[in-house]
Specification:
The complex is a heterodimer of chains A (about 200) and B (about 425).
Chain A: H1 3-11, E1 16-22, E2 25-30, H2 35-44, E3 52-59, E4 68-76, E5 81-89, E6 96-98, H3 107-118, E7 121-123, H4 155-164, H5 173-179, H6 181-184, H7 187-194
Chain B: E1 5-8, E2 26-29, E3 35-38, E4 53-57, E5 69-75, E6 78-85, H1 93-97, H2 102-112, H3 117-132, H4 138-167, H5 171-191, E7 200-201, E8 204-205, H6 213-236, H7 239-245, H8 253-258, H9 264-268, H10 275-278, H11 299-323, H12 341-344, H13 348-359, E9 367-375, E10 378-386, E11 394-398, H14 400-405, H15 408-412, H16 417-427, H17 431-435
The chains are: A alpha/beta (about 200), B alpha+beta (about 425).
Chain lengths: ~200, ~425
């Protein structure tokens, strides 16, 4: 067992749920709301020094009674240790966990992907929006078990939505405020775009 | 001195006049009829002072190495802000994996980081074997090391060639693709496929190497260093190359670790994190090789790190070729490895095993594991969760270039637009892996 698990249990008795070892990898289960504090301790403490965030992801079991799990894979490069943290979100509870972005910049896209695929909200992430799917994607969260493999909408509905999308929708709001692109276009071009013509992509 | 006179040309590039017609502007030519200066009427020139411009780099731009789209806010030619957009190639590999048996997922791993297919196959098989609790044979271990290092060389060669083209050198591209072709020939002799190899199975390999294959490998490891030396002579001290790469896209060691960078990108910043050394797999701790580390963390150091990794991979290949033991390649486990076809059609027991494996698939115990290997791009991880059924509950890819790319705004901001191309090339992204 990774010695960090025991130290987490001593330092954070209220956050610690249980620890288990499987295939020589230690997993520490935590209460979702306290993940931020524990990760902060693991990152900052001189005896732990988990300075590298490998991965953030989530697991939903086929048995829909089981809780949804959010998983963090941490590495300590100085001590060559590997630790898995898990937070279980019970069914019916809001899917929200603290973001570790203030501690690891590398969590930026990993948390966005997790939000995109599972709908988990990472509280404290500065720019939590879809990343692999487009921002107007309305079919739900693809990696959830209730999401069918083929998607929710038919091909024709997907095509209809793609054609109906505004060209500005390919830009985020921050980008549009940089450019004020639409207002600056020539009148004739604005009319064409308003008439539904698409810019090529 | 010749007297200057002006002539009008029919078409110009500076836009429309007040009535919406193309602007006619005077060109200044000397007596010989040569154009010497362009005198555009000042009143028509748009005032661009202090205004920022927004441009799209990609998703069709060849220098973005795939369908990456960068929205850049430019002040003149300097990048003020960079917002990357990914996902154009998303095809839901992880979702599809939840509907496939373990051996059926291996062809999907070919197609994510398609420059490193054998390496992905090996990484996937390692993860699945830990989940199944299987020990692979000694011959298989060494063969997998050979596959991983060949695929590292292959991927680095593509990186070298395309980066040279991006920065303006054409010849190394041809040389590196010639060498890569030789590895493809070796893989073709081994497994029959070149790009999408599907080299491994859970518990073994798709095929043993054919007779005489090691001679081809030795020939390659003997002559390949000469090509590296030639590229080295051509590029490493080339004035244009040095000018385009030194001091560009710098990441400090602390920033790089915090941003989760891995692979040559992290090592160029001075952090000697290599999964092969720090968390060894496939007996890498018994091979004698060095991990090159940079000091400045700029594009030039990343180039130097990758060049040295090519040489170190050749060292590992030589050692692996020398120690390859005889013996079986696949584990002796009828649950996992298909019986030979001749037995499956003639022996009752083998036929049952064959049927059970093909129709149901092998069942791992309940559990989970995260296996990381050092792919050419960095730490490539596969995370499996099993509930005891033949198909994984969750198959997660930890894509190194995805995390590496997420740091691109930090690297490009403040640099020139042309440096964005060099920095993007130095990250060595494969969009198939980023979007999955």
């Amino acid at each position: 067992m990774n010695p960090s698990a025991e130290r987490i249990r001593e330092k954070f008795p209220t956050a610690f749920v249980r620890a288990e070892v499987i295939w020589a990898e230690t997993t520490v289960y935590l209460h979702p709301e306290s993940v931020g504090d524990v990760v902060r301790y693991l990152h900052d403490d001189e005896a732990e020094r988990y300075d590298y965030l490998s991965d953030v992801t989530a697991v939903e079991y086929r048995d829909l009674e089981l809780p949804l799990q959010v998983v963090w894979h941490l590495r300590s490069l100085p001590f060559r240790r590997f630790l898995r943290l898990k937070a279980e979100i019970p069914r019916g509870a809001p899917l929200s966990v603290p973001s570790v972005y203030p501690i690891y910049k590398g969590a930026d896209w990993l948390e966005r992907e997790c939000y995109d695929m599972f709908g988990i909200e990472f509280v404290g992430h500065p720019d939590l929006r879809r990343i692999l799917m487009w921002e107007q994607y309305a079919e739900g969260y693809p990696l959830r078990k209730d999401f069918p493999l083929r998607g929710r909408f038919s091909r024709s509905e997907q095509l209809r939505q793609a054609l109906a999308a505004e060209p500005e929708s390919r830009y985020s709001m921050t980008e549009l405020t940089i450019a004020d692109a639409f207002e600056d276009l020539p009148l004739e071009m604005r009319q064409r775009l308003a008439g539904g013509e698409k810019t090529g992509e | 001195m010749a007297e200057k006179r002006t002539v009008e040309v029919a078409l110009s590039t500076s836009g429309l006049d007040a009535e919406g017609r193309p602007q006619r502007i005077p060109l200044v030519v000397d007596d010989g009829g040569r154009v010497t200066t362009l005198e555009a009427p000042l009143s028509i020139e748009p005032e661009l002072e202090g205004e920022h411009m927004l441009i799209n780099l990609g998703p069709q731009h060849p220098a973005t190495h795939g369908v990456l789209r960068l929205v850049l806010e430019l002040d003149g030619e300097t990048v003020v802000r960079c917002i990357p957009h990914v996902g154009y190639l998303h095809c839901g590999f992880e979702k599809i994996g939840e509907y496939r048996q373990y051996n059926q997922i291996i062809p999907w791993t070919d197609r994510e980081d398609y420059l490193n297919s054998p390496g992905n196959n090996v990484a996937f098989a390692l993860g699945a074997e830990r989940l199944f609790g299987v020990e692979i044979t000694p011959r298989c271990t060494v063969l997998r090391v050979i596959a991983m290092e060949l695929s590292r060389i292959m991927s680095h060669l593509v990186w070298l060639g395309t980066t040279c083209i991006d920065i303006g050198a054409f010849t190394p591209f041809l040389w590196s693709f010639q060498e890569r072709e030789r590895i493809y020939t070796l893989l073709e002799q081994w497994i029959g496929a070149r790009l999408t190899t599907t080299l491994t199975r859970v518990g073994g390999m798709g095929a043993d190497i054919p007779d005489g294959w090691m001679d081809g490998l030795r020939d390659f490891t003997h002559t390949f260093p000469k090509t590296i030396a030639e590229v080295d002579r051509m590029v490493t001290r080339n004035g244009i190359w040095v000018g385009r790469t030194i001091g560009i896209g710098v990441m400090s060691a602390a920033d790089a670790v915090n941003a989760g960078l891995s692979g040559p990108l992290l090592r160029a910043s001075g952090v000697a994190y290599d999964v092969r050394k720090d968390f060894p797999y496939l007996d890498y701790e018994t091979y004698d090789f060095d991990v090159p580390v940079g000091t400045n963390g700029d594009v030039y150091d990343r180039f130097l790190c990758r060049m040295e990794e090519l040489r170190q991979s050749v060292r590992i290949l030589e050692q692996a070729a020398a120690r390859l033991p005889d013996g079986p390649v696949n584990v002796d486990d009828a649950r996992l490895i298909l019986p030979p076809k001749s037995k499956a059609t003639s022996e009752m027991e083998s036929m049952i095993h064959h049927f059970k494996q093909v129709m149901e698939g092998p069942r791992p115990p309940i559990g989970e594991t995260y296996v990381a290997v050092e792919s050419p791009k960095g730490e490539k991880g596969y995370y499996f969760v099993s509930d005891g059924t033949p198909k994984p509950v969750r198959w997660r890819i930890r894509p190194p270039s995805y995390v590496n790319l997420s740091a691109i705004p930090q690297m490009v901001e403040g640099h020139l637009l042309s440096d964005v191309i060099a920095i993007n090339a130095s990250i060595d992204i494969v969009m198939g892996e980023i979007d999955r």
